[in-house]
Design brief:
Largest sheet: 4 strands, mixed
Keywords: DNA-binding, Transcription, Transcription regulation
Helix content: 55-70%
GO molecular function, one term: DNA binding
Number of domains: 2
Shape: globular
Radius of gyration: 21 Å
Domain HTH arsR-type: 272-365
Pfam families: HTH_5
Strand content: 5-15%
Organism: Copranaerobaculum intestinale
Number of strands: 8
Strand order of the largest sheet: 1-3-5-4
């Protein structure tokens, strides 16, 4: 079951804006990085220009403090997305949707002794999935052990511990900045919404018609259970991404799917795009990595979950997580959710398209 929620989650949007600011990655940088990729056209370029205009209008009215920067720094060298702030603010289903309520976030932290917060940061490098079923270890010693086993940047390990110890105070500090930021963003989002009507019309239609499951399984190679209730939420600041978040790993848990503005028509879901030379080189670079190549060989005929791959390849689960994320983002792996695990399988369709184009580029005259 799919529901399209037209209003952006402004908590999430504010977090993404702050992430762009602190990591010096505005929309002009985004435009430069994607302008040579397949699927880029004038419509995308115009959309980025509008988003940069919105971004600049917001930043002229706000001054973001330096002391919050560490909450938005990447946790891993190889993963420039996951940060502490995102896990802090997304610890309640209502937070996943749209409501700003620091009291609810604090209450949840106190009720589960920080389980939701820690789960968002360390779940990828649990040694045994059974631990996840029983609850994330939350004593300081156990948490230190988990952090020591991870490939998280050393600086960020200490920051995770610091935030864990001063969580309530950090929530207040973060929301003292985010709430006035959201107050600035909200009227601007209303003002500019008509520019993105094509996006809103498309997602309202596919959610109503019930064709979204097929579209998403084709586009992002994610197997979606019929029991999942998925709410689709637009994302402006995350315009070039699709992100899924759920409160737990149960098969029937509600899922919120944030869809970036670029994904505005069926071309992004049903029509194969010709791979640009830059993307081809990026794909070949991934395939040249022995560990990534070994993962693809391991999952070409049977789906496997992270711990299985880690044991077979003698790698940490954190390393496996980085590798499969890179392969998934490139379209070389498909994802299947079953009970409390995510399984990975080779996306033979995409790999076949890659080989066909490589043959066309290098062997055919």
């Amino acid at each position: 079951m799919f529901t399209f929620y037209e209003n952006c989650n402004l908590v999430k949007e504010a977090s993404l804006l702050m992430y762009r600011f602190y990591n010096q990655h505005d929309f002009l940088d985004l435009k430069e990085s994607i302008s040579k990729k397949s699927g880029y056209n004038q419509e995308i370029g115009d959309m980025i220009d509008l988003l940069q205009e919105i971004y600049e209008k917001i930043m002229r009215q706000v001054s973001l403090p330096d002391d919050l920067k560490v909450l938005f720094e990447p946790l891993y060298e190889q993963d420039n997305v996951l940060c502490i702030a995102d896990s802090m603010i997304m610890t309640d289903y209502e937070m996943l949707m749209h409501k700003v309520d620091r009291k609810a976030i604090k209450k949840r932290f106190e009720e589960d002794n920080g389980r939701s917060f820690i789960d968002g940061l360390v779940n990828d490098f649990l040694d045994d999935p059974k631990e996840n079923d029983q609850g994330i270890p939350l004593t300081v010693d156990e948490l230190m052990d988990k952090l020591d086993q991870s490939e998280m940047r050393v600086k960020m390990k200490w920051e995770v511990l610091r935030v864990y110890h001063y969580y309530l105070e950090t929530v207040d500090r973060l929301f003292d900045v985010m709430e006035p930021l959201i107050a600035i963003m909200e009227p601007l989002y209303r003002e500019y919404a008509f520019h993105f009507q094509k996006f809103y019309d498309f997602w309202s239609r596919v959610c109503t018609q019930g064709t979204l499951k097929e579209a998403l399984e084709h586009a992002v190679k994610l197997k979606i259970e019929d029991s999942n209730h998925i709410t689709v939420v637009p994302s402006w600041m995350g315009c070039n991404a699709i992100a899924m978040q759920a409160m737990d790993a149960k098969a029937d848990t509600p899922i919120v799917m944030y869809i970036g503005l670029f994904f505005r028509d069926s071309d992004f879901f049903f029509h194969s795009q010709k791979i640009s030379r830059e993307e081809m080189c990026s794909h070949l670079k991934l395939l040249s990595d022995p560990s990534k190549y070994a993962i693809l060989c391991r999952v070409k005929d049977q789906a496997r979950y992270g711990l299985q791959l880690a044991k077979h390849l003698n790698l940490t689960t954190a390393t496996i997580s980085h590798h499969v994320n890179a392969l998934s983002n490139a379209g070389l792996l498909s994802l299947e959710k079953d009970a409390n695990r995510v399984y990975y399988r080779m996306n033979k369709e995409h790999l076949g398209m890659l080989l066909d184009q490589l043959r066309e580029d290098l062997l055919e005259s």
